[in-house]
Every structure is written in C-alpha cells, then in structure tokens.
UniProtKB/TrEMBL annotation:
Residues 659-768 form the Molybdopterin dinucleotide-binding domain. CDD domains: MopB_CT_ydeP, MopB_ydeP. It holds the Pfam family Molydop_binding. Belongs to the prokaryotic molybdopterin-containing oxidoreductase family. The keyword Mitochondrion does not apply. One of its GO terms (cellular component) is membrane. Its cofactor is Mo-bis(molybdopterin guanine dinucleotide); [4Fe-4S] cluster. This is Oxidoreductase. Keywords: 4Fe-4S, Iron, Iron-sulfur, Metal-binding, Molybdenum, Oxidoreductase. NCBIfam families: Fdhalpha-like. Residues 131-507 form the Molybdopterin oxidoreductase domain. It comes from Mycolicibacterium sediminis.
C-alpha cells in the first residue's frame, strides 16, 4: 500500500529498497545484440511501475511526435517526413518514466529525512524518490531542508549574490536538458548580473569536439543530417556505445546497411549495439535474429585512435601515390583546404609499427580499413565520449577530420563529421549562449537588443569553477539542472569545494547528490521537466530544442506536473532576475515569462541563424540551423579554409603492473541518475561496483574472477609527485577488453579522476584514461 500524498494525489515512493548490497552482482555473460522484444518489455515495465498505465500511455504516444515532446533521453534527431508512431527506444522510455514518475519528494519527505540521513544514501536511492514538489531551504546550521516560499527563496539568493565582492564570485552551471528559451533567459540573467561564469555539462562532454572542429572546419557542430547516414558508403563509429546511449541511431544504421553502407566500429569493447541489433519497431526485428551492425570491429586500445587515424592517413597517401588523384581529392584540397603539405609531410613519416602497438590491431585489419576508406565515395565519422575524454582528445579528433578532408568528405551528401551529442538539448544551450567564452558578435547583439552591458572577460568552465570554489575565489553556486557534485571529476575535491560555498542553489526535477553536498545555505527549486504541461497565467507554453544535427523544433509537455508549486525554468529565471536586478531593469522579464514567444523574439534578434524564429520553429519539423561547411563548403576558420591539423602523435602506453581505466555508462543509468542495478548488455545484474578486466590481466596481476579489489589511481601532478586516489571495493569481472585496459562505471569512479587531469585545450576531464592499480581488499585488512 502506498501512502497518498494529500496535496498531489501521487504515490509517495514505497518500493525502493532502503539499502541494498552493491555486491550482490551476478554475471551472466555479455549479450551480443541490442534491443528487440526484451527492450520493449523493459520500457513498458519501467513505465508502468513508475508512471502507472494512464501516464505511460499518455507519455509514450506523445514522445518525439510532431505535437508531442522531445525525448529527454539523448540528442539523436527524430527522422523527418512524419515521425513514426512510438519513435522511442528502451532507454528513451526509461528517461520519460524517470521524469514522469508518480513518486514525489514532498516537504514531509524532508521532515522525515535529515541532511545526514540523505548524505548516507546511495545515488540510486536518491534518484528513485521521485519528483521534488516544493521549494525548500537548508538554513545555516539546520539539519533539515524546510519549505520556503518562492519569493523568499529568490530574496535569499539575490542577497547572497549582491553581497559578493564581484559577480565573478558566482558560478552558474547548466546541464543539457534546459530548453532554448530557458537557456537564453538564464545566460541573459547571468550576463546582466555581470559575469560570464557559465560552465556547463558540455565542458565534460563534447568540448573537445567543439575545440577541434572550430579549428578544422570553423564551426563546432556536426556536418551531417540523418538522411546523410542513409546515403553513406562507410560509417565509422568511434568511441560510442549507441545501443545504450543513442538507441534510435541503430535503426538509422540498419537502414544505411540495407542501402549498402559498411560500418566500422572502433571500440575497446564489443558493445552489444555495435555487434547485433534487433529493431523493436519492426516485426522482423522482433522475431528475427537481428542484423550484425559492424562490418569491421576494431578492438582498439584506449586512446589509440589518434595513431589509428594517422596510420590510415599514411596508407591513404601511399595508395594515392600508386594511382595519383584517385584517393586524395586534389580539387577539394586545393580549393578548400589549408596546410595540406605539412600534414602530408608528417603523415608520410608515421611509424606503422608504432601504430600497431598503440592501437593493438594487426596489419591486415589496418589494410582492410584503409581499403574501405579508399573505395568509399561517401564516408561519415561518428564519435562520442570515447574520443572526447582523453588528454589528447582535441588532436585525436582533428586527425579524424584530416582523414575526411583528404578525401573531400565534407559538404556533400552522405559524408561528413558527426559528433553525437549527449544531453537532449546540450547543443541548443550552446547556441543560446551558455558558454563561458561567447564571441563578441553574440555579446554585442545581446547588448544592442536589451540595452545592457555584458561583461567581456571570459568566465570559468567546469574545472576552473571547481578550482575557484576550492580556493575561495567563488562562493555562490547555482545549477540549472544536472548533478554537479557527482558528474564532475575528483569527487572529494569537488564536494569540499561545494561545501565551502556560502550558498548553493539547485534547480532540479529530482533529488541527487548535489542537494546533500551543500553550501552553508542551500536551496532546491523544483522545476518542470520536458514532459510536464507548462501553463503561464493560464496559457499553454511550448519550448524549443536543437538536436545533434542542428535541427531546431518545438517540444510541448502534456502531463500533469508533480504539484502546483513546481515552476518552469523560464519562470524561475525571470522571477529571480526581477528580484535580483530590480523592477527598472531594461529586460522585459515579466513579458518573457508570461509568453515564451517574447523570449523567442529576442532569440531571433540575437542568435545567428535564428531570424524569424517564432515562425520557423512552428513548421512541422522545425528548421535546420545554418552550417557553412555542410551547406556550401565555406569554412569560417582563421584561414578561411578547412585546416589540416598537424600534431605530435600521442597514445597511452600502460605502465608495468597497472591498468588504464575508462569510466563509462551502464545500460541502466542516465549519467548520474541510476535507473537500476543491471547492465543487461554486458551481463551484469544487481550491482554496479564492478571492474571489467581482460582475462589475461586478471591472471597476470594475480587475481581471480570475483575477487574484490580497491582501485587506486596514480596521477603525476604539476609538482611531479604521484598523487593517489582510491575507490573501494569493486568486483573483478573478466571481460573482452584489450590487455592493459579496464572499464568501470561512472559516477562511482569519478573520485579517481584528478581535477588537473584534463584534455589539452578543451579542459575536459580525462574520464577515459585513468592509470590505476588494483589492490586486494584482504591485503588491507
Ligand atoms: N541511456 C542513456 N543515454 C545517454 C546517456 C546515459 O547516461 N544513458 N548519456 C548521454 C550523454 S550526456 C552522453 S555524452 C552520451 C554518451 O554516449 P557514449 O559516448 O556512448 O557513452 P559512454 O558510456 O561514456 O561510452 C563511451 C564508449 O566509448 C568507448 N571508448 C572508451 N574509450 C575509448 C577510446 O579510447 N577509443 C575508442 N575508440 N572508444 C573508446 C567505450 O568502450 C564506450 O563504448 O550518451 C547520452 N545518452
Ligand atoms: N567519470 C566520468 N564523468 C563524467 C562522464 C563520464 O563519461 N565519466 N560524462 C560526462 C558527461 S558526458 C556529462 S554530459 C556530465 C553530465 O552531468 P550533468 O548533466 O550535471 O548530470 P546528470 O546526471 O545528467 O543530471 C541529472 C540531474 O538533472 C536534473 N534534471 C533532469 N532533468 C531536468 C530538467 O528538465 N530540468 C532541471 N532543472 N533539472 C533536471 C535532475 O535533478 C537529475 O538529478 O557528466 C560528465 N561526467
Ligand atoms: Mo554528455
């Protein structure tokens, strides 16, 4: 029997275990195919358990439909030409169930659970308590969050912000679910207040892709559309696990294959979605054996991709020597590219033995891959966190772009670069100005539109913001969504940094670690999510989002929000702005809150490519933002051409007796939100504290399957000293991964990632290459 909450009529969480044994892990052997009937069953089951039958039906019929809401799962685009009924996947359905759950976290909940009690709870438990229904405050010295009125909450925040010596002592984080309207309003508030401290989740995600692509092609976004994938001859998928993280991509890949495309999967792990796939939307997918996705599975060593791309570059140049002009697209290179000669000189000298060592693959496979690239007339390169979260991520991605440029594979049908974004609107948030270093053109347009003076000094990104809070240079933290405490690296350092703040504010849908790791005063502001109906003064509002392929379209939530005390992110920003900036501030905050069309008018005036925004987003499938390389082979770089990048070759040798660890997602989580304790595709059930190790390493390091170990990371800091960090008690699971390379789940392993271990140029934490040693639990007594 559930307890009905009086105010909302929703069920209070009742069936989440209060504690569970994280080591009750069962391994069942990895599955080699993704989706299929099981996926549909899992999604329906999750929906029914957390939303009940009516909300499940209401939610799933509107998911990714023209008049419905954008899936809060990933940023993979919807297909055009009339979206299919039920364009959803298992993990999209889980993301919806997670948000549209009927469970609620009420003021009663906070009265029952002290902050110390909550701080001891596992993240899974916190995630599963339900939607937050009321604004609450934890006052200095108090041990419970208590209800607070919205107005009072805004006043407390404004007082803390005004008390700072400089606006630069405040940090305004954004996660990637925030709509374009909310993001635009938020950056306008922050810049009106006087700082560019706008770190976002992208700093930990595709920042390396942006940094690399801006140099290479002049714009930090992907150059292909979904349709392009269907025309491609060859699709590379490097460092991405689409079966779990972008499942709808698999149906597009299936179509591409039916049209004759060959797929090269470059990954240390044989991920289920890359090996075989059954489309749950199709009868043959449901009953048949599914199709093998990868034509070539390149089981690469962690961080070996740069060497792979450089080695392929050399083989392509040599093939061109044998048949001049057939491999290198001389006309494209001459007309559109700069720095080819330097690239050619460096690439001809690449040591192929080193390439084989760095990648761990054999020469025959390298030759086969080169042949595939040579014969392909249309090549697309897709990638995600396996490339972006390395020390050499930026040059690694540039090396991949070099390969495409050499063959003229940008700005034509069926070819191009495709960084596959994570959060459903992370790309849109950037377009709207969530960035600590927006260009002058954007800032001056913003100033001209509103008569404000935006600050010009660049702000802090995520890693710099943690350093600033740690060192007392920033003391107010506000998070627009996300889970800063747990998504960031070096958990102990980050938690201590947040605890030093005078105020932490979280705008959230659900409870997470960032609510219990708090400043002296802490406030939680509950916000509407993507699926919720958004009424402002009785009139229904819609928001817009941008997907991974620059398509912008509307999203309309339709479900009953968790309580009448939950506000939209736009409303929260506008109301805070009025309190903080005063009634005479030149931005018409109240008008924008009351009618989001007014926010969109401003977007049209300020954001490049968004003119006539209100009309264009209302087109049935929205509209596509301009992309000069894709649209007309124009490259807005410093040279005005596409630049071949020349960088010293880097890779990751494994020190003696050590392993290089990647931290990644299970099939049952959304970033720090843990949906469940199983990773079906990798054969893990009932727990998350596991480390996947090559069977030969298990033996060589003196362990056996099922041993419990501590993971100790070793990082050489600036002083030259080796710093150690420890994550305790993981179960060894022998797994198919290259010798010397291991894998374990994020966020349990974030404490192992040193704050200073970042990608050169993008400052992205190196979450995919942590040097560790294993220590037997028993040895420590
Ligand atoms: N269901 C679900 N969907 C999600 C998310 C989620 O947590 N759950 N998160 C969203 C977000 S924010 C993001 S950014 C994306 C993340 O999507 P992914 O990037 O697919 O996520 P990861 O789990 O980090 O997986 C990284 C993949 O890269 C491989 N890899 C690791 N290191 C290397 C390397 O050095 N070289 C190569 N070639 N491969 C490597 C890993 O084996 C793994 O397959 O997904 C988004 N979608
Ligand atoms: N070790 C390691 N660390 C990583 C990564 C990794 O691969 N390895 N990946 C990195 C990547 S790619 C990313 S993107 C970051 C993710 O970092 P974040 O985006 O900060 O983390 P999430 O876990 O996605 O945030 C989940 C929380 O967002 C809130 N939320 C959800 N929907 C909404 C909404 O609509 N509105 C509001 N206001 N709040 C909402 C909920 O309260 C929920 O608890 O983590 C990074 N950290
Ligand atoms: Mo991400």
């Amino acid at each position: 029997m559930g307890i009905r909450h009086l105010m909302t009529g929703r069920d209070v969480a009742k069936d989440i275990p209060v504690s569970y044994d994280e080591h009750a892990v069962v391994t069942t052997g990895a599955e080699h195919e993704a989706a299929g009937v099981k996926a549909v069953m899992v999604s329906l089951q999750r929906g029914l358990t957390s939303m009940g039958p009516l909300r499940t039906a209401a939610a799933l019929v509107r998911l990714n439909q023209r008049k419905g809401f954008d899936c809060p799962g990933c940023a993979w685009p919807e297909e055009h030409g009339g979206r299919k009924f039920a364009e959803f996947c298992e993990n999209g359905a889980k993301a919806v169930a997670e948000e549209a759950t009927k469970r609620v976290v009420t003021p009663d909940f906070f009265a029952r659970h002290s902050i110390d009690d909550l701080a001891d709870r596992p993240e899974y438990w916190l995630s599963q308590q339900g939607r937050i229904t009321h604004p609450v405050i934890l006052r200095a010295g108090d041990d419970h969050y208590r209800p607070i009125s919205w107005d009072h909450a805004y006043h407390v925040i404004a007082e803390h912000l005004r008390a700072l010596d400089s606006p630069d002592e405040a940090v305004f984080y954004t996660s990637g679910r925030t709509s374009n309207e909310a993001a635009f309003a938020y950056q306008l508030l922050v810049r009106s207040f006087g700082t560019n401290n706008l770190p976002d989740c992208s700093n930990m995600c595709h920042e390396s892709s942006g940094a690399s692509l801006v140099d290479s092609i002049g714009i930090g976004k992907g150059s292909v559309t979904v349709e392009d994938l269907e025309y491609a001859d060859v699709i590379l998928i490097a460092g991405q696990n689409p079966g779990t993280n972008h499942p709808r991509m698999l149906s597009v890949l299936e179509k591409a294959k039916a049209n004759g495309a060959k797929i090269i999967a470059i990954n240390p792990l044989p991920e289920a979605g890359l090996m075989r796939f059954k489309d749950p939307q199709k009868v043959n997918g449901v009953v048949g054996n599914g199709i093998g996705i990868a034509d070539e599975f390149v089981q690469i060593r962690l961080g070996g991709d740069m060497a792979l791309f450089a080695g392929l570059g050399r083989l392509l140049l040599e093939a061109d020597d044998r048949a001049p002009g057939t491999v290198v697209d001389r006309a494209f290179v001459a007309e559109h590219c700069a720095n080819f000669e330097a690239y050619e000189a460096q690439t001809r000298a690449v040591d192929l033995d080193l390439v084989l060592e760095a990648t761990g693959i054999d020469r025959a496979q390298l030759d086969r891959l080169a042949e595939m690239l040579i014969t392909s007339e249309r090549t697309i390169a897709c990638w995600a966190m396996g490339l972006t979260q390395h020390r050499h991520a930026v040059p690694m991605i540039s090396e991949l772009t070099n390969l495409l440029l050499m063959r003229g594979m940008i700005g034509k049908r069926g070819a191009g670069v495709c960084p596959v974004r994570g959060h459903s609107n992370v790309q849109g948030d950037r377009t709207m100005g969530i960035w600590e270093q927006m260009p002058e053109t954007f800032l001056s347009a913003l100033d001209a539109r509103f008569g404000i003076v935006s600050p010009r000094k660049h702000g802090m990104d995520t890693v710099d913001a943690i350093r600033a809070m740690r060192d007392g240079r920033a003391s107010v933290f506000m998070g627009m969504g996300g889970n800063f405490a747990l998504a960031t690296p070096d958990t102990h350092v980050t938690e201590a940094a947040l605890r030093k703040c005078s105020l932490t504010v979280q705008v959230s849908t659900k409870l997470n670690r960032s609510h219990v790791v708090h400043g002296t005063t802490a406030i939680i502001l509950p916000s509407l999510g993507r699926t919720d109906k958004d009424l402002q003064q009785g009139s229904k509002q819609q928001v817009s989002v941008e997907d991974s392929m620059s398509m912008v379209h509307l999203s309309r939530g339709s479900l009953q929000p968790p309580s009448d005390q939950v506000r939209s992110e736009v409303a929260i920003v506008a109301e805070l702005a009025r309190t903080l900036l005063g009634p005479d501030h030149p931005v018409p905050w109240e008008e924008m809150r009351a009618d989001y069309d007014r926010v969109r008018d401003a977007i049209a005036a300020v954001v490049p490519g968004c003119d006539d925004y209100n009309r264009k987003v209302r087109q049935p499938d929205g509209f596509q933002l301009p992309h000069p390389p894709r649209d007309s082979r124009l490259f807005p770089t410093t040279t005005g051409k596409a630049n071949f990048a020349v960088n010293p070759l880097e890779w990751i040798p494994v020190p003696e007796g050590r392993l290089v660890l990647q931290t990644l997602r299970s099939h049952d989580q959304y970033n720090t939100t843990i949906y469940g304790l199983d990773d079906r595709y990798r054969g893990v059930k009932g727990g998350r504290r596991v480390i996947f190790v090559n069977p030969d390493d298990v033996v060589a390091l003196g362990f056996s399957e099922g041993d419990r170990v501590d993971l100790v990371s070793e990082f050489t800091g600036a002083s030259g000293d080796v710093e150690e960090r420890r994550a305790e008690d993981f179960l060894i699971v022998p797994y198919s991964t290259p010798v010397g390379n291991a894998a374990a789940y994020y966020p349990e392993t974030n404490s192992l990632v040193a704050l200073d271990h970042v990608a050169a140029r993008s400052n992205t934490p190196v979450s995919k290459a942590v040097t560790i040693r294993l220590e037997a639990r028993a040895a420590r007594g």
